Amino acid sequence: MVDTDIKKGKKKGEKIHLGDWPAVKRTIDDQVIEALKRAGYDVDYLMVDIRSGLGILAVLIACVAQFWQGKNKNAPEVLVPCLAAYMVLSGLMWLMQFVLYKDIIAHTKSLPGNPGVELKSKMKRYGDRYTLQARMKCDSVVGVRESSSTEYIGRFFNVDAEVQVESISALVNDVLHQLDVPSESSNGNSKKDT
Fold first, then answer.
1. How many whole angstroms separate alpha carbon 108 and alpha carbon 9?
2. What secondary structure, in 3-state letters, does 37-75 show?
3. 94: which residues sit within 8 A by CB, 6+ positions away?
4. Phi first, then psi: what are they for 124, rounded to 5°?
5. Phi/psi at 23 (nearest 5 deg)?
6. Distances from the Cα of 160 to the Cαs of 18, 67, 68, 150, in angstroms?
7. Is the Cβ–Cβ distance between 61 and 15 less than 8 Å?
8. How far is the C-alpha of 47 from the C-alpha of 97, rounded, in Å?
């Protein structure tokens, strides 16, 4: 019988290779999103859905160009518009992913009395520090509140390289709590580096 841990979403005892930097960051990011959900926030997947829709549309256009069964398979009246549309859609997806939403891992839905939160994460390649930043748009008086926290990634894994969900949840709760408590600065920013 396989013993599973529902909170982790992984089999108990499953390990992550800590030398695989992208896998470490992706694992921490996924657990941050799960901690955000457990904190009562509703994650908004609209931008992910838009990027997925653009990708599907680009693939369909490529399929039309590839499998066109007209009189002339290499008809420029079909291939040129398909190529142009594919390039535009690919460019839009690239722009969304790497310029507009570079480090953003999650958006939450804005509700009355509860403005949306945007979470960003940063971790240098082969680095040992993980930075989580949160940003909340508030009313016109307060403006934008921001908070961040940097932690050593060893805090998020035990000696067997298993994810420590409690440590990641504590980081998320700390960053979200900083958003709720206005700092002494005039613009409402609060920063914390540990």
1. 21
2. HHCCCCEECHHHHHHHHHHHHHHHHHHHHHHCCCCCCCC
3. none
4. -65, 150
5. -70, -35
6. 10, 50, 54, 23
7. no
8. 10
d(CA 169, CA 123): 18
Segment holding 89, helix H or strand E:
helix 76-95
From the list 148, 158, 116, 132, the residue with the least C-alpha distance to 15 is 158
| Overall residue count recorded for the chain in this entry | 194
Cα separations in angstroms, 3 against 70, 128, 168:
57, 30, 22
**Positive or negative, the Cα torsion across 113, 174, 137, 29?**
negative
Please give the single-letter amino acid code of residue 193.
Answer: D
> Containing H/E element for 5?
strand 4-5
Strands in 117-122's sheet, in edge-to-edge order, are 43-44, 104-108, 117-122, 129-137, 144-152
pLDDT top residue among 54 and 15: 54
CA distance between the termini of the chain: 41
Decide if pLDDT at 105 tops 50.
yes
Q: Choose among 194, 124, 164: nearest CA to 7.
A: 164
pTM: 0.72
State the Cα–Cα distance between residues 94 and 97, nearest whole angstrom: 5
pLDDT of 192 strictly over 70: no
